[in-house]
Amino acid sequence: MNFFKYQGTGNDFILIDDRDGQFPATDQAYVERLCHRRFGIGADGLILLQNDPDYDFKMVYFNADGAEGSMCGNGGRCIVRFAHDLGLFERETRFLAVDGEHTAVVLGDDISLKMTNVTGIGDRDGLTFLNTGSPHVVQFIDDLESFDVVAEGRAIRYSSTFQPGGTNANFAQVIDDHTVFVRTYERGVEDETYSCGTGVTAVALVAHQQLTMPDPVSIQTIGGNLRVSFSPESDGRFTAIHLIGPAKRVYEGVLTI
Ligand SMILES: N[C@H](CCC[C@H](N)C(=O)O)C(=O)O
């Protein structure tokens, strides 16, 4: 079976064309092994591109621990690039993911991915929490470079407040009046990743609501730059949310395990 490796701002994924439905998707240990950086290909997650009768394709996303995850924004941009590379559409696409319908547009090196609407930004035991397709805590701090993202993120991820599912944890530092630097501890990878698409989306919306940062918000991550545009609604919801940034094929290979 062939596989492809893609990355979006350093969030890296194994992509498999599973339109024939042959991939053993229920074998969690196998997916985990493929994502392992010593025993496998190495990736933050694995994504299947499957057929769907009503859409250009369907995205099935697994975290590096082999379990099916909630929505993945960078993975969403990568599978759009993959579908484009496979010739499934020319400029605009409509696909199905775990959180429902998404549309996306190819803009040169960038993919603009429409994210699910956000119902509001809440407070859970003093922590800012929202769901952008995946659950995210957002915390603004002053010196993000020297911050212990793994220790602090893990404490939030496993705190009783967010059980049983847990949450992703994002730490953000304001760079200027429209730019934020973000580092994320990802559930399911159980480590800091170079970038998290649903996470930076969450940070942008919180930066708008709490710090009046205007649309669009520019985001810096360890793996590169993203932009998030959105429409704030009067009832606290956000619509027309777009995550915009690069997504690239890195290599292709043949599975021998
Ligand atoms: N890397 C992903 C997030 C995956 C979500 C996953 N960590 C979970 O909560 O299941 C992104 O770009 O949005």
From TrEMBL:
It comes from the Bacteria. GO terms for biological process: lysine biosynthetic process via diaminopimelate. It is found in: Cytoplasm. Its EC number is 5.1.1.7. GO terms for cellular component: cytosol. It catalyses: (2S,6S)-2,6-diaminopimelate = meso-2,6-diaminopimelate. It holds the Pfam family DAP_epimerase. Keywords: Amino-acid biosynthesis, Cytoplasm, Isomerase, Lysine biosynthesis. InterPro entries: DAP_epimerase_DapF (IPR001653). The active site is at C72, C196. Pathway: Amino-acid biosynthesis; L-lysine biosynthesis via DAP pathway; DL-2,6-diaminopimelate from LL-2,6-diaminopimelate: step 1/1. One of its GO terms (molecular function) is diaminopimelate epimerase activity. Substrate binds at N11, N63, G73, N74, N168, E186, R187, G197, T198. The record marks H136, E186 as: Could be important to modulate the pK values of the two catalytic cysteine residues. Belongs to the diaminopimelate epimerase family. Catalyzes the stereoinversion of LL-2,6-diaminopimelate (L,L-DAP) to meso-diaminopimelate (meso-DAP), a precursor of L-lysine and an essential component of the bacterial peptidoglycan. Homodimer. This is Diaminopimelate epimerase. It comes from Spirosoma aureum.
